[in-house]
C-alpha cells in the first residue's frame, strides 16, 4: 500500500517526468523513444508485447504514420508508479 507521503512523492515525480518527456517529445512519444522508455530492449520485443497485448499502458496508431504512439502523460504516470509499486 502506498502512503500519503509516497503518493505526494509519486505525483511530484510524475510531473517532473512529464515535463522532461514533453520537452523532448511533445504530447506523444513513439518509436525507439517509446519502447526504450518502457524498458523494452528492442523494437522486436516491443512489437511482440503489442501482439500479445501485454503492454503496460495504452498505445495507439495514427493514420499515415508508422508505429505505435503513447501519450507522454501516460508514460510519465506509468514510470512514476513503477518506482512506488508495492511488492505483491
UniProtKB/TrEMBL annotation:
The protein, known as: DNA-binding protein
Natural source organism: Pseudoalteromonas phenolica
Amino acid at each position: 500500500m502506498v502512503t500519503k507521503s509516497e503518493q505526494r512523492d509519486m505525483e511530484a515525480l510524475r510531473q517532473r517526468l512529464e515535463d522532461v518527456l514533453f520537452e523532448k517529445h511533445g504530447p506523444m512519444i513513439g518509436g525507439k523513444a517509446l519502447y526504450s522508455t518502457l524498458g523494452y530492449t528492442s523494437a522486436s520485443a516491443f512489437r511482440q508485447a503489442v501482439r500479445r497485448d501485454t503492454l503496460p499502458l495504452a498505445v495507439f496508431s495514427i493514420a499515415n504514420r508508422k508505429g505505435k504512439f503513447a501519450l507522454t502523460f501516460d508514460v510519465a504516470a506509468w514510470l512514476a508508479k513503477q518506482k512506488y509499486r508495492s511488492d505483491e
